[in-house]
Amino acid sequence: MQVKNIIKTVIQVAQKYREKLENKNVLFIYLNRYNQEIKYIETKFLSRNFLHLTGLNFLNKYPNYFYKLCINNKLKSENIQVSNKKVIQMKLEVLNNLIAIDKKSKIIGNFNNSKLKLNTEIIVGNINWCLGFVKEDDYYVPNTLFKEDIRNVVESANRIICIMTKKIKDDKYVSIDYLAKDFEIEKIIFSKDLENKIDLKYNKNLPKKPY
Length: 211
Hints:
The structure is a single chain. The protein is an alpha+beta fold. It has helices at 3-20, 50-54, 63-71, 85-95, 101-104, 185-189, and strands spanning 24-31, 38-45, 57-58, 80-81, 107-110, 122-125, 130-136, 139-146, 158-167, 178-179. The protein has one domain. The protein contains six helices and ten strands. Helix 1 (3-20) packs across helix 3 (63-71) and helix 1 (3-20) runs parallel beside helix 4 (85-95). The longest helix has 18 residues, at 3-20.
């Protein structure tokens, strides 16, 4: 993969990342595989996270500046170092999945430490890609992305049943990006812990509280 094509792909995804994920919280709600309990994690996507997902070595060292160059279409070959084109190519093949994260994330689980050089905690994805997160304050932030069957790298492949997104500045999630077809929204809205994070009262098609 030529450097010019690497730069083109990264710029295109960065510009979409700005619209879809920058300064957003994404709530992943899932079923524990073993006891069927509803669980969740809250994630946070910032401009500085994008560089880590590309695998590129940015010579300036500042992730926010890298992101700024990308969204302004000013990233140049002299700004980056491509140490392993094969690894970068594999990352870029799945980088676009970020933009369709609500459609491309079907499984979530704790990292099983199967890859010695990978430092992450929780992984979401499907049989084709993985997005890793580490805990930062009250949220999980993305710190790695790679092409892999997620079932090979998690302790337990838990099914994602619902995904919601909101702006970081907003208090509660007010809309649904993804809901499993065979799952009842009532179980999510009124489940313990999640009730205080979700406010769907403005959506007339959703059920009212059962009391």
